[in-house]
Amino acid sequence: MELEEKPKYGEPRKYDANFKGPIQNRGCTDIVCCILFVIAILGYLAVGILAWSQGDPRKVIYPTDSQGQFCGQAGTPLANKPNLFYFNIMKCASPMVLLEFQCPTTQMCVEKCPEKFMTLVKAYSNNNDFAYYKTFCKEGVTNTMGIPLILSSGLCPAMLTPSRPFTRRCFPALGLKEGVITVGNKSSFDDGSGNMREAKDLMDGVKNATVVIEARQVVMKIFEDYTQSWYWILIGLVIAMLTSLLFIVLLRFLAGIMVWVMIVMVILVIGYGIFHCYMEYAALKGEAGANVTLQDLGFQTDLAVYLQIRQTWLAFMIILAIVEVIILLLLIFLRKRILIAIALIKEASRAVAHVMSSLFYPLFTFVLLAMVIAYWAVTAVFLSTSNEPIYKVFNETACDHSRKTCDPANYSSSVEKMQCPDSQCLFAFYGGETPYHKYLIGLQFYNVFLFFWCANFVTALGQMTLAGAFASYYWAVVKPDDMPAFPVFSSLGRSLRYHTGTLAFGSLILSIVQIIRVLLEYLDHKLKGAQNKFTKFLLCCLKCCFWCLEKFIKFLNRNAYIMVAIYGKSFCSSARDAFLLLMRNMIRVAVLDKVTDFLLFLGKLLIVGLVGIFAFFFFSGRVKAFENTAPHLHYYWVPILTVVVGSYLIAHGFFSVYAMCVDTLFLCFLEDLERNDGSAERPYLMPESLRKVLNKKNKTEPAR
Q1: Given the DSSP bridges, would you call strands 188-190 and 180-183 parallel, antiparallel or unpaired?
Q2: DSSP 8-state symbol, 89
Q3: pLDDT tens-digit profile of 435-468?
Q4: Percentage of residues in the chain having pLDDT higher than 90
Q5: Could you give the residue ranges of the DSSP H alpha helices within 284-309?
Q6: Cβ of 559: how many Cβ atoms within 10 Å?
């Protein structure tokens, strides 16, 4: 049986007296993919230049009036008129639609939105009111013009309603009063033609209106909370960084103790969470409205309401209890493997201590990723705003030319205007019929694909660089004398000089899978309203399969980059060697490596938990010592959530170095077991602590 399995998973590594770690004498790998990547980058730069020459971000920043002019743009006559006013807001379905589609009514830029009810008929009889009214009319309106002429020419709106600016557009100042929609505290108004209309007629429905109003209020409150607490959030993130750094330093000297302390602390932190949820659950017993179910409550924009419901705390308590039980069961069944994992973490701590610059490498990766994200975002904005203004015919009565494109410059003398006297040529949207505009969606797709490719390339470069640095530590007989003077810089130079093509190849495969996942999500979004059960099931299966495939490729790429960093082979050869090596040691991979990842995850969980608990007691005002210091907020969960997410990202940045170090040492450890046998001629290079756990011994110490 054993003879059959060896060819299946390849032959074990043979002893090589000349092997001293990462091979220095190597050549360029995957040159074709390197050339392809360079061409793709040049094409990406060309797309960016084309987008920057054609695009206009002002279309996103500023609203556009009926003449295609930007409201509030500096250096133009409309610089002091930042808001867009709609002549007849009732022609628009709802404020939500106004954010996406052009309303079939005249729009003009104004300095301020109207603040009071007024009709043209009433304003015309008072000079002061008419002077105010004319600020919402087109130019050329005089006191000598009659009301019929003003309205028929479309120079003024028939009425004004109290409005507020939202995304620089004047929306009716809607509110709720005893369950009735109001505008300007009135439930009805004069529409300018002598008819009384209800305030709810301004909207497609009361529900949509209230959601928009409440959502706007929530967004403003969250923004205010950030302005009040941003410096405390920064302090919390600094504490998270210092805690992560302290944790890394303590692991260097007290790895065994720290791992067990970390395990106990995680159990205690989650245990306290269960206790706190129970106390809150018990405290709400008998309180009015506390027994309402989450289903009956429905969606509420004020999330604090959910904390007054017993079922919320019960759900939190059950979730934490399940997590606690899972962690305890894993610890019970993996207690022996934890000892080996601790030995591996100890060795990783020594490696990090010898390669301290590795702790700062994630900053370099972060800067490169920030550049990639910024380039993608700017290019995407310029591409999406590189369309031309399209004008269409809008009319009150039936017209054969309705919604057809038109030219506002000569529309007054056009055939359309003669056949439809009450029609207008108004700005509709941005588009275009040129070849550039037809292939715009393809350029956006290319932008997204290159974003994935470049981002994955940067991540792969970091993995290969750290792998080469830590591999040079493991295979050094005398540490640090046999190591390069600058392991990280040496490994970074080798990766860029010889293996740019390999990095591009691995990241290309991953990017293809990721872009397929994006397309599946896009299809799911487009077909959501019309899909049948079979289509839904098929899309769900495809998304699940490609998610699993992405995880597998990430795992395979990571180990392939380690083998490339050591041996300098091509991507396919390295991926095959790594896969066969792992398959020959399937039990160790499935248990030992994953146990180590689990312990490092507990470390991140501990840091996030400690900082999160501190942030909770500080911002919620539960501790009297912080009661006067903490800022007064609308939603105290806003800074808490920000600190928790930021703490996890910071801890992940530090522990990602550790994780890469552990993975590299683990592969080197497996190769060490295959290459050497502990004899005087072929001694193990693994540390003594790891040999003891595995019951491996060197008959004599390696020659110094």
Answers
A1: unpaired
A2: G
A3: 666 777 788 889 999 999 999 999 999 999 999 9
A4: 11
A5: 294-297
A6: 24
Buried b (16+ CB within 10 A) or exposed e, 53-86: ebbbeebeebbbbbbbbbbbbeeeebeebbbbbb
pLDDT < 70: residue spans in the chain: 1-13, 15-21, 59-61, 90-104, 167, 174-220, 289, 294-304, 387-389, 396-397, 403, 427-437, 528-531, 587-594, 621-628, 689-690, 693-695, 699-704
Q: What are the tokens at 211? A: 């959601």
Which residues pair with residue 176 across a beta bridge? 181
Length of the chain: 704
Q: How far apart are CA 504 and CA 571, in angstroms?
A: 10
Task: Report the run of H or E that residue 425 belongs to, with start and end.
Answer: strand 424-431
> Does the bond joining 480 to the residue before it have cis omega, within 30 degrees of 0?
yes
Note the pTM of the prediction, 2 decimals: 0.69
SS3 of 532, please? coil
Name the token pair of 537: 């099931």
Q: Which residues lie below 8 Å from residue 255, measured CB to CB, with a gap of 6+?
A: 342, 345, 346, 349
Any idea what the Cα angle at residue 555 is, between residues 552 and 557, rounded to 5°?
105
- Maximum alpha-carbon separation in the chain: 112
Is residue 449 a contact partner of residue 511, using CB atoms and an 8 Å limit? yes
CA distances from 188 to 94, 182, 196 (A): 18, 7, 6
| Cβ partners under 8 Å of residue 128, min gap 6 | none
Alpha-carbon distances of 370 from 367, 375, 448, 451, rounded to whole Å = 5, 9, 15, 11
Torsion angle (degrees, nearest 10) of CA 410, 413, 417, 421: 130
Determine the 3-state secondary structure of 114 from DSSP.
coil
Residue 533: its pLDDT value, please?
76
Closest C-alpha among 132, 107, 112 to residue 120? 132
pLDDT of residue 209: 40
SS3 content of the chain, % helix, strand, coil (to 5): 65, 10, 30
Measured CA to CA, the distance from residue 630 to residue 640 in angstroms comes to: 12
Helix (H, G, I), strand (E, B) or coil at 427: strand
Looking at residue 502, what is its pLDDT? 94
* Residue 632 DSSP label: P
